[in-house]
UniProtKB/TrEMBL annotation:
The keyword RNA-binding does not apply. It comes from the Bacteria. The keyword Cell division applies. The lineage of its organism: Bacteria, Candidatus Falkowiibacteriota. GO terms for biological process: cell division; chromosome separation. It holds the Pfam family SMC_ScpB. NCBIfam families: SMC-Scp complex subunit ScpB. This is SMC-Scp complex subunit ScpB. Keywords: Cell cycle, Cell division, Chromosome partition, Cytoplasm. InterPro entries: ScpB_csome_segregation, WH-like_DNA-bd_sf, WH_DNA-bd_sf.
């Protein structure tokens, strides 16, 4: 089975650039194979008729190459207008649920958020990041990204710290959620 299709899927859902090293580890192959596939994908997408382009980033800190899907620069005005409308609209119920989880349990990894919600949260997290309501920090030791709410989110709610949220103490320390994250129970948890 070719790994080109799965790589393409990962680039699509990722909210940050993926390194050649990461992709090689995921697919247990050599960096050269990843670079060859990325050249093919770049050739497929980076043309004037494609709405998607693949960006190649050279990391100055690690010296490695990273790739990320992006919109075609010629579509910048229509994409910008759409994002402006999206960002000024109301949050969806799934976005509010995700934001609530981050507020009460943050910093929390994407995997833990998805364990609690039971669905992929990539696009929701990307939207919340674009709105400036959450921030992400990479934990290099655990090789995972951790999400937390921002000062902007707290200001929007009219509170100065997360502990001022309703029922913060009870909900942030919920044993049901802790058990769920540790895989010790089959409880269903719904945020109202």
């Amino acid at each position: 089975m070719s790994i080109k299709s799965p790589i393409e899927s990962l680039l699509f859902i990722s909210n940050k650039p993926l390194s050649v090293k990461q992709l090689a580890q995921i697919f247990n192959c050599k960096n050269e194979e990843i670079l060859m596939i990325m050249d093919e994908l770049t050739e497929k997408y980076n043309n004037e008729n494609s709405g998607i382009h693949i960006l190649r980033h050279k990391s100055w800190t690690s010296g490695g190459t990273k790739f990320q899907m992006s919109t075609n620069p010629v579509n910048a005005s229509v994409v910008g207008e759409f994002i402006k409308e999206e960002m000024s609209g109301e949050l969806t119920k799934p976005s509010l649920e995700t934001l609530t989880i981050i507020a009460y349990r943050g910093p929390i990894s994407k995997t833990e958020i998805e364990q609690i919600r039971g669905v992929n949260c990539s696009l929701i997290l990307k939207n919340l990041l674009l709105r400036g309501l959450v921030e992400v920090r990479e934990d290099k030791e655990k090789m995972a990204d951790y999400y937390n709410i921002t000062e902007k989110f707290l200001r929007h709610l009219g509170v100065s710290k997360v502990e001022e949220l309703p029922d913060y103490e009870r909900l942030s320390g919920s044993e049901v959620i802790d058990e769920m994250l540790l895989g010790e129970t089959n409880h269903e948890f719904v945020i109202h």
